[in-house]
Automatic annotation (TrEMBL):
Protein name: Esterase
One Pfam family per UniProt: Esterase
SUPFAM superfamilies on file: alpha/beta-Hydrolases (SSF53474)
Signal peptide from the UniProt entry: 1-36
GO molecular function, one term: acyltransferase activity, transferring groups other than amino-acyl groups
Keyword Signal set for record: yes
InterPro entries for this protein: AB_hydrolase_fold, Esterase-like, Mycobacterial_A85_antigen
Keywords: Signal
Key word Signal present: yes
Length: 342
């Protein structure tokens, strides 16, 4: 009888302890079930540390040192469920903030991929950068210098950190972005096919060197925070302008799984219900421009022999998070299939 009682007490204690641990991890990691050993601890190395991010869903906010930019770059990272080595980079739009990546703020990509065996990689910051390496300070204000070396960070510095701390392979990545980030996703994937096996553009601007594009980008950068387009690549005839135009990177995407989307710019019922008329007008103009440039890019891509290309042109939709979030959900299965990350 004593042995039976002792055994029962032992089982009850083990049960209570297990529940307490599970609940504790759930609270720390954002009220998610504690089912993934690969996610239950914060990562850290000799110089960089991570904290639990307020968005929850196992997202860690890590400070990653960039030698090229001379500072730590915050990166929000959701580890793969079961330790898979695939990574999905999610790039922000023109008005990226220094507080959070919009993919877990305006929609919740971490919730979308919470049960997936792929590591989400969401860099914070880079407003107006096009995620490129700039020639000089990005702002006109000499008292507020901005050193943008985003291509170097994303393709040379961050991969080693992710490999060491999160098990993400350097050659097994997908990259997706909205608007400015969509432009950068195709450019970076075209220039670095050894790193990115898949690239997705949601309402990107995919022909940045056609007549009028320089002026449009100049105005957009000024409006986004006083950024100087001349500091990006130099003169209007500088070869780097063309190297960073997705239109001229199709050759590097021949073996890449590519998905591009842009809606018509016609407001649907959800747009009308959720956005003011003035926001609908700007969203219509931007999305129409994205569609024109995306269709032009598609023509060249198909002429260049891209066989693994899928396009999506919804009949309704504006340049807003209803459209971007819709595409994120729609492409989840494609991403997980391509990256073998279910």
């Amino acid at each position: 009888m004593t042995a039976l009682t002792s055994s029962l007490k032992g089982r009850m204690l083990a049960f209570v302890t297990a529940v307490a641990v599970a609940l504790g991890l759930a609270v720390v990691a954002g009220a998610q079930p504690a089912h993934a050993a690969n996610r239950d601890g914060l990562r850290a190395d000799a110089t960089d540390t991570c904290i639990w991010d307020g968005v929850g869903f196992w997202v860690q906010r890590c400070d990653v040192w960039s030698q090229a930019m001379g500072r730590n770059i915050p990166v929000q990272i959701q580890p793969a469920t079961n330790g898979g080595n695939a990574g999905l980079y999610l790039l922000d739009g023109l008005r990226a903030t220094e507080d959070t990546n919009a993919w877990v703020n305006d929609v919740n990509a971490a919730q979308t991929y919470v049960d997936s065996n792929i590591t989400l990689v969401m860099p914070v910051g880079g407003a107006g950068s096009f995620y490129a390496d700039w020639n000089s300070s990005a702002k006109y204000d000499l008292h507020d210098p901005v050193n943008y070396q985003w291509e170097t960070f994303l393709t040379s510095e961050l991969p080693g950190y992710l490999e060491s701390n999160f098990g993400v392979a350097r050659n097994n990545n997908s990259i997706a972005g909205l608007s400015m980030g969509g432009t950068a996703a195709l450019t970076l994937a075209g220039k670095h096919p050894e790193q990115f096996r898949q690239a997705l553009s949601f309402s990107g601007f995919l022909t940045t060197t056609v007549p009028g594009a320089q002026t449009a980008i100049r105005l957009a950068l000024l409006d986004a925070g006083g950024y100087n387009i001349n500091a990006m690549y130099g003169s209007i005839i500088d070869p780097r302008r063309f190297e960073n135009d997705p239109l001229y990177q199709t050759g590097g995407l021949r073996n890449t799984d590519v998905y591009v989307s842009a809606a018509s710019g016609i407001a649907g019922p959800a747009d009308q219900a959720n956005y003011l008329p003035e926001h609908q007008a700007s969203g219509a103009a931007l999305e129409a421009a994205s569609m024109v440039t995306t269709r032009a890019w598609e023509l060249k891509a198909r002429a260049d022999g891209l066989s693994r290309l899928t396009t999506d042109y919804p009949a309704q939709g504006l340049h807003n998070w209803l459209q971007f979030g819709y595409q994120l959900e729609k492409t989840k299965g494609r991403v997980l299939d391509t990256m073998n990350a279910w």
